[in-house]
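Memo to structure team: turn this sequence into structure tokens by end of day. - J.P.
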Amino acid sequence: MNGWFHGWRAAVRIARRDAWRSKGRSFLVLAMIALPIIGVSAANVTLRTSELSVAEKADRAMGAADALLSDAGYGGVPIYQAPNGQDTMPVKSYEDEPFPDGDADTAKAVPAGARVLKDTSGAAKVRTEHGSLHVNVRELKATDPMAHGMVTLLDGRFPQKDDEVAVTGQFLKESGLSAGSRLTVRNLDRTYLITGAYELPGDLAANEVNALPGALLTPLDKALEAQGMSGTGQSTTYLVDVPDAPGVRGGFTWNMVEQANTKGVKVESREALLNPPPRSEVKLYQHPEWVDYDSSGEANTAMLASLATIVGLAMLEICLLAGPAFAVGARRSRRQLGLVGANGGDRRHIRSIVLAGGLVIGAAAAVVGTVLGVALTVALRPLLEDWLGKRFGGIDLRPLELAGIALLAVLTGLLAAIVPAVTASRQTVLASLTGRRGVRRSNRVLPVIGLVAVLLGAAIALYGSVVTDQFILVAGGSALAELGVVALTPALVGLFGRVSRWLPLSPRLALRDAVRNRGRTAPAVAAVLAAVAGTVAVATYQVSSEAEYRAGYEARLPNGAVSALLTQGDGRDAPALRDAVRRDLPVDLTADLGRLTVGRAGCEMYSDAKGCGYAEVVTPKANECPLWTTDAEGNSASDSMTPAERRKLGKDWRCASEGGGVTESGLVVGDASLLKVLKIDDPKAEQALKDGKVVSFHRPMVDEKTGKLSVRLVADRGEANDAAAAGKETPGKVVALPAYQAPDSTESYDVGGIVPASAVKQAGMTMAPLGAFHSTDALPSSQQRQKLDQDLDQLGADVDLYVEEGFTGEKSIVLLALTVFAGLITIGAAGIATGLAQADAEADLKTLAAVGAPPRVRRSLSGFQCGVVALMGVVLGSLAGLLPGIGLRLTERRQSEKWYNQMLDQGGLADAPYTPVVIPWQTLVALLVLVPLGAALLAAVVTRSRGALARREAG
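Reply from structure team:
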């Protein structure tokens, strides 16, 4: 071995041959390094593939066109826009003028000589096998080359005639129809042949119907207009293709975009998206009133926590899984290394051979892990797309990133082999040839360092979450504490061993073997610890955030309740509407509703027609919020208040936000059945309604001195508007009604107060039926709703139908990928540690068989060895993972309270922030029970009951 190159070449050859000779052990070592590489590379490719590139986003938005033109909604006044085509604002400042509103003539912004394809959308109801279904109708010639990429044909073909349509695959699932069926549209006396099915790549759950331009929406609008009903609400965008001209390259340039902006039209230009202009040339960014929220310094803490956890977890996993594997390999090859020393090799050569083993296995693991990671992404891609409800882009392989991941595996193989190489080189030739291990003493310094790191890290995280609102302190302290727990793992494994005395034979042997061989057990436990800690940290944050969103969700009704209200007419269709709902849905209880009316019969809510008025609640002077009062000059009283006074008034009951949105006044006419539907258990309120009193759910509405609620009957809306503009009191008759004020804690949803019919009659007021609220035995299904929609179509009335489904959480691909990765690491690390334990203790297993141990002992011992490693790692990881999750939530709580107090100081009103910390008990139970149990059962199943009986070697 003369020369550095020749020495390493020989060492690599020896290491390669040794790895090939010991295939089982080499496979376990390779798996230890490759397993995290599979997870990291799969996560990398999955995230990169799910994130559409700018070109892919443009293809889905505008197909093969050069630009997508749409109305900015400012009535055609000149606008400024960002290169993305989404952020817009008028050029002129409208501080003292009404803000512009209305439609622009988008067609005028199309450049001369450009080819145009119209894309029109509207809403309609169609007949299904189950009843009726709301759908989005899209009139787009999908066969045009410009539309390529916007929709994907699944089966059949797109429409070619005016009496043909194509539908989404999701629509076919929900409607019960199929290709070849005839589609009937409500209020239209014609049917359409379904020629094929397609999907929207960005929304797989869309219920959409595709027709040729002018084939469906236009005749439907005419039919609706003839029947005096609202139209389909058409909106049209223009796909524009600008061809090449002599000496001029085609495409929709930024100058063309700015020219279209002068006509009030916003443009999504492929040229501007792919090659955006310099920020200095974008006039929107130079506007003094523009606020660029996207470039603010506030980071997305949830994504930051997820990404930091993934990166840190991957680095820690590779280091923890690789080290013991090479230690076991070097120990199994000690005789061969002893022969190298006996034949003249020095310590340098022995170190080279062991390090070469790390290099060979690391390189193989890099290739295998990267390839399998990419293959795993490709295999799971359809499932992930269906779960998220959208298609990914093309497989996005980043060579530099994948090469970096692979290089990390090679470097890790070398680093993990350093300690075994140094240890092997220090052994004498005699010790290597005889196989003597000597006396092994546990390291007493490492646990002390780990304990110090845990205490210091926890203190830093606690300081960051309680004293400051700096997320970086919480993340850094949590990482330091987790590393401290990793350093404490050998000592903690020893503590687990103290419970072995109370266990049966197989688990006692498994636990004692794990404690005796901590060099093998501790890294595997630490690997499971890190994986579980990351999962628990993210789960804690997400479950807590979901609890916050759930608490902030404003339900319109109790869960499962149905609201069916008439939006037009004088209410004569209310009985038929109530009967249809009770017939088609699983209704338990019904409460009829009415509304107070002023003026001639037949007036609709919010109508400004002549002779139509409205009713409003008059707030007593003593109950008016001081923050909203103004002096004679129109100055707000809050301007002269101190921040402390504003903060105090912000929590005053007089300044509480007013509930009630069912009617214009917030009051509805009803009886005690409405209390039952709203789940309000208040005997005093029921008695008040029987006595003819109003039940109020908004404290400022009731005069505490008189106990009455005043209603102003405004006969003319125009006169009321003129009086308000002149700063005068609204004209109208005021009627005082006896009232009962419900407790402040009562949840009344959208109802501000209930007026019994007897009180309406006694006060000389008039009312009209509005509809009904219904409680249900079960949440209505899609088929039941479609049947109800069909009956409502036959009724012919305009109905606002709402089913309270409660809060629905969002799905996160980051949490899904992290959870799957943690599960693979946990089971994989425990299984690999068990395999190494069996390879290292084969002689002991043969001895057990020789002394007459039943065959099942070998299988149960393997299962318990795997389960013990998984259980110890899960327990420690669950405890370690709670720290960063809780710390991050406490940090957000301080931020929310800070912003809330600032808003109160400025005179603003808002509900007090609710930032809960919720422990993910379901995740913890699954990890503490299912994962160790699954790992143990899997190891027991794949282990042979009988091993080859052989004579034990001497020494």
